Amino acid sequence: MIRLAVWRWTLDFALTHPFGGSFNSFLVNHIELTDGTIQFGRAFHSSHFEVLGELGWPGLAMYHGCMLLVILKMRTVERVTKAIPNMLWCSDLANAIQSAIMVFLTAGAFVGIAFVPMVWYIIAMSVSLSEYVRRVEALKNAKRPYFRSMATGLPAAAAIPADWRKR
Questions:
Q1: What pLDDT score was predicted for residue 158?
Q2: Of 8, 55, 67, 137, which sits with the fewest C-beta atoms within 10 Å of its C-beta?
Q3: pLDDT tens-digit readout, 8-47
Q4: Which residues have CB under 8 Å from 30's CB, separation 6+?
Q5: Nearest Cα to Cα of residue 26 among 1, 60, 61, 51
Q6: Among 44, 47, 43, which residue's Cα sits nearest to residue 67?
Q7: Do residues 90 and 129 touch, judged by C-beta distance below 8 A?
């Protein structure tokens, strides 16, 4: 019951403070229990409500938007690399990142873990993986690659043009 009361307080707080109350804003809450006692400073008990209470509606939209972009980008990476035998590890890693984000979002519904470093490492890993796949795809589609790519097996260029700095 206390968890639900804190969530209700957070929604009311976000309606009066749409940009949030900054970090540790839960310290100003006061929850009235069924026996008439009042408790102060109860934690949010949810990463989603934590973000809403601390960063407001725009922060919650950016937070969930970031998570959604990671999931969508990793689905794209998984789809693109699944058919390439020497890039199956990228497909597997993209699948693992999607799973990690989904587990984090699900577990975060009941624990205030919105700003733990591990989720930001996972997001950074997803950005790195998608950029790696983009660069490998660009090399594969290039007409004259200037170096050998171990991931794609492209042949090395016979000679680098003299005007390569002007391009």
A1: 45
A2: 8
A3: 777 778 888 888 777 777 667 777 777 777 777 677 778 8
A4: 9, 38, 39, 40
A5: 51
A6: 47
A7: yes
Other C-beta atoms lying within 10 Å of the C-beta of residue 27: 11
Q: Which secondary structure element, helix H or strand E, spans residue 24, and what is its range?
A: none
> For residues 18, 22, 27 and 32, what is the CA-based torsion angle, rounded to 10 degrees?
10
Q: Where are the domains of the chain?
A: 2-141
Return d(Cα 149, Cα 139) in angstroms, integer: 8
Give tens-digit pLDDT for 75-100: 999 999 998 888 999 999 999 999 99
Alpha carbon of 141 to those of 13, 144, 151: distances in Å? Answer: 52, 9, 13
Provide the whole-model pTM.
0.72
